[in-house]
Amino acid sequence: MEETKGLNIAVVGATGAVGQQMIKTLESRELPIKKITFLSSARSAGKKLLFKGEEIEVQEAKPESFEGIDIALFSAGGSISKELAPEAVKRGAIVVDNTSAYRMDERVPLVVPEVNEEDLRNHNGIIANPNCSTIQMVVALEPIRKAYGLNKIIVSTYQAVSGAGAAAINELKEQTREILDNQEIKPAVLPVKGDKKHYQIAFNVIPQIDTFQDNGFTYEEMKMINETKKIMHMPKLQVAATCVRLPVETGHSESVYVETTASSITAADIKSLLSDAPGVVLQDDPENQIYPMPADAVGKPDVFVGRIRKDLDKENGIHLWIVSDNLLKGAAWNSVQIAESLLKLGLVTVK
C-alpha cells in the first residue's frame, strides 16, 4: 500500500489473531500509511494478506526487516519481542509491543491513551501495550480516580478463550461439539498449555489464567495488579484480582469493586462521570435490562460499563460491570491508538 507521504508501518505477528485485528484496525483508521510491511515467523512467511484491497506478502521477521520502519506493532510472543524489538529500535523504529516482555520495565512506558498518553513522551524506543483485562478496567476507572481518588480495587474477571489464542478457541468449539455428541473430550490447551494439567472449558469455568505464583495469585492476576499501579502512577494503590476463564469466544467481562478516597459517593455521580468519559460507553438501565455483555461488545473498540451500584456498607464503595472486546481495545485498537498518539504528540513525523 503506497501513498506519497506517510509512515512506514510494520506488523510483527501479522498472521496471528491480534495481528489480523491490527491490520483491520489500521485499515479502518486514518493513520497516514506510506508503506505497510507484514512480518511473521519463517513458518508463516510467504502467505499473502490483504490491506485495503492490495495483496501483500508476509516476510520472515529479521533484524534487517526494520530498516526504514517508523512504527512497528509487535504481537508475536514475548521471546520474539525480546529478540527483535531492540533490533527495530536500533534501526530507528518505535516499537509498540503487545506482549508482557517490557510491561514492567521501568524504562518502558505502559500506555492506555485515555489514561496516560503523556507517558509516551518518555519512551526510549519501546512502548508497552498492557494486558487486555487491565486496559478495559483502567479506561473505566481513570475518570473516577481523577474526580474522587482511588484507594482500593477488587476485580474478578470473566475472560474469553480468545485471550489464550486460536488453539483455545478451537478447543472450546471442539469440546462443545464432542460433549453434545456424547463423545470423550481430551483437554490439551486450557488453562495453560505448558502447565501440568488441562481441563474442560466447554460448559465449565476455570479459575486459573496463566501459571500460579508463590503468593497463590496467578501471573495474570499479578499482571493486572502491577500494571494498574504503573499505568495510574499509584504504587501504593490497593489492588486484588481473581482471573477466571469462561466458555466465551471473545469479550472479557469484569466485576469491579472500588473504594474512593472521597468519603462519600453516589451511583448517579459515577454514571454522570462515565457517560462523558473517553472510550467509555455507559449501558446502565436495570429497569429495561440494559447492561454490557460480551456478545454485544465484539467488533467494537469501546469499553462498556454498567450495573453501577453504591456499596451497601461502605459510603465510598462502588460496584461496576465492565466489558470489552479483548482482541480490539484489549490489544489491536490500543496499539493503533498509541501509534496515533505518537503522531498527535509530534513524537513521530510523517515523511
TrEMBL record:
<keyword id="KW-0220">Diaminopimelate biosynthesis</keyword>
<feature type="binding site">
    <location>
        <begin position="15"/>
        <end position="18"/>
    </location>
    <ligand>
        <name>NADP(+)</name>
    </ligand>
</feature>
<feature type="binding site">
    <location>
        <position position="326"/>
    </location>
    <ligand>
        <name>NADP(+)</name>
    </ligand>
</feature>
<dbReference type="GO" id="GO:0004073">
    <property type="term" value="F:aspartate-semialdehyde dehydrogenase activity"/>
</dbReference>
<dbReference type="InterPro" id="IPR000534">
    <property type="entry name" value="Semialdehyde_DH_NAD-bd"/>
</dbReference>
<dbReference type="InterPro" id="IPR012080">
    <property type="entry name" value="Asp_semialdehyde_DH"/>
</dbReference>
<dbReference type="InterPro" id="IPR000319">
    <property type="entry name" value="Asp-semialdehyde_DH_CS"/>
</dbReference>
<dbReference type="InterPro" id="IPR005986">
    <property type="entry name" value="Asp_semialdehyde_DH_beta"/>
</dbReference>
<feature type="binding site">
    <location>
        <position position="103"/>
    </location>
    <ligand>
        <name>phosphate</name>
    </ligand>
</feature>
<comment type="function">
    <text>Catalyzes the NADPH-dependent formation of L-aspartate-semialdehyde (L-ASA) by the reductive dephosphorylation of L-aspartyl-4-phosphate.</text>
</comment>
<comment type="subunit">
    <text>Homodimer.</text>
</comment>
<comment type="pathway">
    <text>Amino-acid biosynthesis; L-methionine biosynthesis via de novo pathway; L-homoserine from L-aspartate: step 2/3.</text>
</comment>
<keyword id="KW-0028">Amino-acid biosynthesis</keyword>
<protein>
    <recommendedName>
        <fullName>Aspartate-semialdehyde dehydrogenase</fullName>
        <ecNumber>1.2.1.11</ecNumber>
    </recommendedName>
</protein>
<dbReference type="InterPro" id="IPR036291">
    <property type="entry name" value="NAD(P)-bd_dom_sf"/>
</dbReference>
<feature type="active site" description="Acyl-thioester intermediate">
    <location>
        <position position="132"/>
    </location>
</feature>
<keyword id="KW-0791">Threonine biosynthesis</keyword>
<keyword id="KW-0560">Oxidoreductase</keyword>
<dbReference type="InterPro" id="IPR012280">
    <property type="entry name" value="Semialdhyde_DH_dimer_dom"/>
</dbReference>
<comment type="pathway">
    <text>Amino-acid biosynthesis; L-lysine biosynthesis via DAP pathway; (S)-tetrahydrodipicolinate from L-aspartate: step 2/4.</text>
</comment>
<keyword id="KW-0521">NADP</keyword>
<keyword id="KW-0486">Methionine biosynthesis</keyword>
<feature type="binding site">
    <location>
        <position position="159"/>
    </location>
    <ligand>
        <name>substrate</name>
    </ligand>
</feature>
<comment type="similarity">
    <text>Belongs to the aspartate-semialdehyde dehydrogenase family.</text>
</comment>
<feature type="binding site">
    <location>
        <position position="245"/>
    </location>
    <ligand>
        <name>substrate</name>
    </ligand>
</feature>
<keyword id="KW-0457">Lysine biosynthesis</keyword>
<feature type="active site" description="Proton acceptor">
    <location>
        <position position="252"/>
    </location>
</feature>
<dbReference type="Pfam" id="PF02774">
    <property type="entry name" value="Semialdhyde_dhC"/>
</dbReference>
<feature type="binding site">
    <location>
        <begin position="43"/>
        <end position="44"/>
    </location>
    <ligand>
        <name>NADP(+)</name>
    </ligand>
</feature>
<dbReference type="Pfam" id="PF01118">
    <property type="entry name" value="Semialdhyde_dh"/>
</dbReference>
<feature type="domain" description="Semialdehyde dehydrogenase NAD-binding">
    <location>
        <begin position="8"/>
        <end position="123"/>
    </location>
</feature>
<feature type="binding site">
    <location>
        <begin position="162"/>
        <end position="163"/>
    </location>
    <ligand>
        <name>NADP(+)</name>
    </ligand>
</feature>
